[in-house]
Each structure stands twice: as C-alpha cells, then as structure tokens.
Amino acid sequence: TQLLEQSPQFLSIQEGENLTVYCNSSSVFSSLQWYRQEPGEGPVLLVTVVTGGEVKKLKRLTFQFGDARKDSSLHITAAQPGDTGLYLCAGEDSSYKLIFGSGTRLLVRP
Amino acid sequence: DAGVIQSPRHEVTEMGQEVTLRCKPISGHDYLFWYRQTMMRGLELLIYFNNNVPIDDSGMPEDRFSAKMPNASFSTLKIQPSEPRDSAVYFCASTWGNTEAFFGQGTRLTVV
Question: How many Å apart are CA B85 and CA A94, to the nearest integer?
C-alpha cells in the first residue's frame, strides 16, 4: 500500500517567518505534485517535480524532490497571510494512480 | 472549458437512502478519479478510470459503494444504502495522462 505522510499536520506561524513542510513515503513515485486547497474548493496544483533531486521555485515557494523519488519538501520564505491553506503532496505511480498525503494545515497570522 | 463539474454541491439524506453523486470531467481528459475527504482520513482515493474503464477500485470502502463511467463525459458514484459514517466531501478530478489533476468543487454529503 502506498502511503504519503506529511509533517507537520498543523502549523501556525507569524507573518514573515519561514517554514518547511515534509512529505515522506517508502514508495518510489514517477512524479510528485504539490497542491493547495482553500475552504470549499478542490485542491489546485502548485508544482510537479519529476526528477530525483529536482528543485523548483515558485516565487517564495521552493519545492524539492528527494534523490530516491520517495520524499519531497516545500519551503516557504517570508510567509504571508495569503499563504494560509491546506497543503497536500500527491504521488503518482507508473500507472498514473494519484494518491495524496495527509495534508498540512497552515495558518499565517498577520 | 468550464472545468470539472460536480453535482450536487450539497446533499443531505437519511440513513438507508441511496445517494448518487455526479461528475463531468474536462473534455479530452482520459483519467477520472473519485476521492473522499474527511478531517480524520484526509483525501482518500476511492477509484479511478482510464478511458472509461475502472483501473483500481481498491479504495472503495465496501460493497455499498459503486462507480460507473458510461462515457467519456460522465461518471457517477453511488452509495446504497448510505450510512452516517459516509458523511464527507467527495471530489472528482480528471487528468490527461500524467499532467495536472483538475478537481471539481466537491459534493458535501451529510447522512443523518
């Protein structure tokens, strides 16, 4: 059974602080995606990483895929209240099956 | 394209009743996923289809749940009979191959 565990589950920080969210698995994935979900809406894709060791940046967000393609991290620099939301990692296997991690609920206080 | 369309947005039903959730994927997408989201269990994959054919239904909780995709533009998830523990938000998502998954707005199901 493929499982993706995210940590931390909850994070409450002050505006301007940095944070890192982790996504870990014992399974190897073809790609790993990060989504953000707001209340009442479905998840929306932030980024996809495909190559082991790959690093992608999206403004203040930095995403990294582990060398063995089993884990990933999301780092946010100088968090803003607009970053508040549920962050989900999702692993895709060779048959295009997409499973999601447990999620990290982020609150950025002004 | 209007995106993935799910209906209804909200459903309240009594225990024992049949519930049918509907999904219209994005035109041209060949994969369709059904997920269930709760605070306790997160976003769980129930079943997914490729070109209207079910590929993996190992996430379907029990025989009370069934899903169909009669054509490329429509899928249903049925629960019969429904139970209070089925209360959750059900999402449908579609993709083209291994590209981005586009989600509908979800159906919030409450079974009383």
Answer: 32
